[in-house]
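agent> fetching stored inputs for the glutamic acid docking request
agent> found them:
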Amino acid sequence: MDKQVVVRFAPSPTGYLHIGGARTAIFNWLYARKTGGKFILRIEDTDAERSTEESIKGIMEGLEWLGITWDEGPYFQSQFIDEHRETALKLLRSGHAYKCFCTREELEKKRKEALAKKSSLQYDGTCRNLSPEEIAGKEAAGLPYTIRLKVPRVPGAVRFKDLVYGAIEKKYEDIEDFVIVRSNGQPLYVLSNAVDDARDGITHVIRGQDGIANTPKQILIYQALGAPVPEFAHMPLTLDPKKAKISKRRHGEVVAIHFYREHGFLPWAFVNFLALLGWSTPDSKQIFSKEELIEAFSLEGVKRSNAVFDIRKDDPKFFTDPKALSINAHYIRTLPLEELEPYVREQLQKEGIWDPEFETSRRGWFLRTVDLIRQRFHVLTDFVTVGRAYFSDDYPVDERALKKNVLKHPGLREWFPLLAKRVRALENYTLEGTEEMLRATAEELAVKAGVLINGMRTAVTGQAVGPGIFDVLLAIGQERVANRLEKAVKYFE
Ligand code: GLU
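agent> prediction call returned; pasting tokens
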């Protein structure tokens, strides 16, 4: 039997969970779920100056919101610093590493000379070949030292087959004897990360493409330790439409996961969207249930080309990637109503317009109304912005709709009160009844039915577009429609 797959998401907690990080987490999680493997959350918090509690909390909340559940952890890299140091000492003892007593000044001087001569900037290995007596002497003198890994000095290369990028190699001669522990005893990240992966039994390192640069060094560390070398799968970068790397500094909150929670995304819709950033099936399928996504996912399906996160935050029509919006809209439109219900309730509650009757005596009405209006919505917040009029008498009125559908037709000043009266008097307040009344009134007034319809829609919902007017009138209800039509004369004042 093959060994169980063990993967990890290893964020550095120096900011919020962002698009790129979440996507890496999702790919790890999918791979674990697909293979019946284990998914570990490991927080790489050894950069004490930049790591914050708040960021750790934010990352975990973000993953929880997305429904990305881990099987073990969170582990914290900082708890294992002693082990990282011990490992370096072990490498010293086994002859895979050596103490380097070169001072910063000496190294700087050599670097400058090499720059002037245009020769290699690599460490020249001065301390690699110190005799045991020389080492003992320097130690006795209390000289500080770093620990460097001995890179093989024979012809050859570190080679690995990245599961996404294919064969990669780096010649030994192009890798200097790199430092694994600083002179103050602090292990370097490249060591800590490899030691943690080895200890946790990670079989597949699935991480961002920027990890490729560290991989040859990490493979040398595994080899020096005699530990099995994991498989590597690096994920393409996520770029903005101008091909700049996605970052908080450049793009602000729109790249943060919490932004999508606040802006009315359904967590699964967002996972679905993120999974498509750099991965696809041969038939370019767009919508996946959780089971389908787990089933379809493969590391082979990850593309090498950079993924584009098509943020259009400066376009008034889109405040983010249009594909993210359209996938979210799909789920809002098609989710079983009972599954959508709690999300809509949360929106209404946040706005203080939730009525407990919506889940008791008026639940039937509530679900029908949600079903009616969701067809055009892109985000959950639409239920309390453009859809607010269905749940509250205090709703916004779109200025452009008002100009186009109401103010342009001064006749409505008289027609609204008349329609209000007729609505109130209507015995047969049904789809047919309201339509009949409206068409008869239009004829009588010798005005196009469309003028009355558009005017009424704007008066009773505040919007220019929406479901069919007679469905709208029914959903809003006879009494409220009549009241709103009566009050609509105020627009002419
Ligand atoms: N802490 C690293 C990062 O956030 C992860 C590197 C890795 O996964 O090996 O980029």
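agent> quick read of the result: The pocket of glutamic acid is lined by residues 10-12, 44, 193, 205, 207-208, 211 (CB under 6 Å).
agent> awaiting further instructions
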